[in-house]
Design brief:
It contains ten helices and 13 strands. With about 325 residues, it is of the alpha+beta class. It is globular. The structure holds adenosine-5'-diphosphate (ADP) and magnesium ion (MG).
C-alpha cells in the first residue's frame, strides 16, 4: 500500500495545467492569484473520530481544534484568515454536543476575524471538515523557500500532543487525573497567523511549514521542496514543560518532541541578517521562538544531540 504522500502524488497530482493556479498540490495551502500583488490561500483538513481524536473528546475542544488545524496551514503561508466553510457529519444532532462545539469554533474564528460562510451537515460517523481561505501577498512563505545558511526556527513548545496520545494508549504511565488538563493543553494551541503574516509581509522569511506530523518529518518536506539539507539540533528543541515533569527517560522525551505529530507550531527559516528583527517581532507578538538548526547544501538531514550525530529508530508520522 502506498504511503500518504505517495498516494497523493500517484492519484491526485499533476491535473492542473498551471494557468490559473499559482501554487497547486504540495504545500500547506494552494494559491490562486487575485490581483497583481495578492493571492487567495486555500486549505482543507478533516478530523475523524478514532483517527484524529478519541471518542468522547470535549466538543468545545473539537470545535476550536478543527478550525485551528486549518488556520495553522494559513499561518504556514503567511496568509491572513478571512473565511471558512464547515462540513459536519454527526451521529446525532444534540444540543449537548453542538453548543460547546460552536463555542470553541467561534472563540477562535472571532479572535482571528475569520467568518463561517457555508458548509454541509449530514448524519454519519463523527467527522469534521473545514476549508479555510486567507489572503496573502504573492511573496508567501513556502516549503520551497529555504536557502543554505538559513537558520531553522520553531515557535512555541513541542511534544505535548504526542505525550497525551501515548498516555491515553497506556504506553506512558501517567496519573489519570492529569489526562484532562493534558488533553486541553494539547488541543487548545495558540494560533500563529498574526505573527506569520508579519514575518511574511515584512520580508523577513520566505519559508515555513506548520508542524502537523512531527518536526523531523515536516522539516523533511521543506528540504525536499527546497532541494537543500539541514542539521537539526535535538538538544535545542523546545520541549513542552510537561515532558520534563512527566517523562523521566531523555530518549523518550526527544522522541515525542522530534517525531510526535499535531503540535501545530510554525517551523520557519531565516537568513542570518533578519534574525534580530524577527526576535523583536516575537516579543511584540509574545511568541516564543527557538533556533533549532541550520539549512545546509548537503541534501541530507542530519540529527545532532549535544554535538553528536544520532540515528533515531522512530519514523515521522504518516496516515497510511
Ligand atoms: P498539511 O499537513 O499541510 O494539511 P498534507 O500533508 O495533508 O498537508 O498534504 C500535502 C499536500 O497534498 C497538500 O498540498 C495537500 O493539499 C495535498 N493533498 C492531500 N490530500 C489530497 C487529495 N486527496 N487530493 C489532492 N491533494 C491532496
Ligand atoms: Mg500543513
Amino acid at each position: 500500500m502506498p504511503g500518504e504522500f505517495d498516494l497523493i502524488r500517484k492519484y491526485f497530482s499533476g491535473h492542473d495545467d498551471g494557468s490559473r493556479i499559482e501554487l497547486g498540490i504540495g504545500d500547506d495551502c494552494a494559491l490562486l492569484k487575485l490581483r497583481r500583488d495578492e493571492s487567495l490561500a486555500i486549505t482543507t483538513d478533516t478530523l475523524n473520530e478514532g483517527i484524529h481524536f478519541f471518542k468522547d473528546t470535549d466538543p468545545y475542544l473539537l470545535g476550536y481544534r478543527s478550525l485551528l488545524v486549518n488556520l495553522s496551514d494559513l499561518a504556514a503561508m503567511g496568509a491572513d484568515p478571512k473565511a471558512f466553510t464547515l462540513s459536519l457529519s454527526l451521529p446525532e444532532a444534540t444540543d449537548s454536543f453542538l453548543k460547546p462545539f460552536a463555542k470553541g469554533l467561534f472563540e477562535l474564528a472571532d479572535e482571528e476575524g475569520c467568518s463561517l460562510i457555508g458548509g454541509n451537515t449530514s448524519k454519519g460517523s463523527l467527522s469534521i471538515t473545514i476549508s479555510a481561505y486567507g489572503v496573502s501577498c504573492t511573496d508567501t512563505l513556502r516549503r520551497s523557500g529555504a536557502k543554505s545558511g538559513d537558520g531553522i526556527y520553531v515557535t512555541g513548545f513541542l511534544g505535548l500532543c504526542a505525550l497525551y496520545v501515548e498516555a491515553c494508549y497506556g504506553r506512558l504511565k501517567i496519573d489519570k487525573s492529569l489526562l484532562s488538563s493534558l488533553c486541553y493543553k494539547s488541543m487548545h494551541q495558540q494560533c500563529r497567523c498574526a505573527f506569520a503574516k508579519e514575518l511574511c509581509d515584512l520580508g523577513y522569511s520566505h519559508c515555513a511549514i506548520d508542524i502537523s506530523d512531527g518536526i523531523v518529518g515536516d522539516l523533511g518536506h521543506i528540504l525536499e521542496c527546497s532541494n537543500v539539507g539541514a542539521d537539526l539540533w535535538l538538544d535545542k528543541l523546545p520541549l513542552a514543560k510537561e515532558l520534563h515533569t512527566l517523562v523521566n527517560d531523555e530518549q523518550k522525551r526527544l522522541e515525542l518532541a522530534a517525531f510526535g505529530g499535531c503540535d501545530y507550531e510554525l517551523l520557519f527559516t531565516l537568513p542570518a541578517e533578519t534574525e534580530d528583527d524577527v526576535m523583536d517581532l516575537c516579543e511584540e507578538h509574545d511568541v516564543p521562538v527557538t533556533k533549532v538548526g541550520i539549512i545546509t547544501s548537503s541534501q541530507e538531514l542530519r540529527l545532532f544531540n549535544h554535538g553528536k550525530i544520532v540515528r533515531p529508530a522512530a519514523k515521522p508520522f504518516e496516515h497510511f
